[in-house]
Amino acid sequence: MSPKLLYAFSDVSTQGRLLRILIIDVEYLVALEAEQVLTDATGCSVEIVMPRDAPDVLATRTFDVILADASLASGAAGAGLRRHHEAGGPIIFSSVNRGHLAGVPGFAGAAVISKPFDDELLVTLVCNVAKKKKKKEG
Q: Cα(75)–Cα(81) distance, rounded to whole angstroms?
């Protein structure tokens, strides 16, 4: 990981606390890989939630950035993801479906990364969406 990206994450911490990232993926090993990449590169607080538990977690907790499998956008977790997105919370969708690279229906402006993802691209995307959120908050 480049020193430039590592430094960039120190700039996106929120009000003196670690950036909180939620990962929801239908494939647990993909979620574990993303967690490892983001934890190693950023030192952020990263949590993995399985799709079956996502609706409850999204209804009761807040996160700075969510990385979610695009197939969940229309499933049971979709309502919670939509609330997060509509409240200005950044979402990065991941997908093996190349059709999603143009965007996930109902989530205008949400970033999409293809699976398998490039580690540095994932870190860059998380950094970029976190910076945009921080700018909006003032």
A: 10
Tell me if 122 sits within 8 A of 77, measured CB to CB: no
- Quote the pTM value: 0.87
Cβ atoms within 10 Å of 121's Cβ, excluding its own: 11
Whether omega for the bond prior to residue 116 falls within 30 degrees of 0, making it cis, is yes
Q: At what angle do helices 28-42 and 119-137 cross, to 10 degrees?
A: 70
Question: What are the backbone dihedrals phi and psi of residue 97, each rounded to the nearest 5 degrees, phi first?
Answer: -80, 110
* DSSP classification of residue 114: E
3-state secondary structure of 93: strand
Q: Residue 57: pLDDT band by 50, 70, 90 thresholds?
A: very high
Quick count: other Cβ atoms within 10 Å of Cβ 5? 15
Taking a C-beta distance cutoff of 8 angstroms, is the pair 107, 125 a contact?
Answer: no
Residue 39: CB atoms within 10 Å:
13
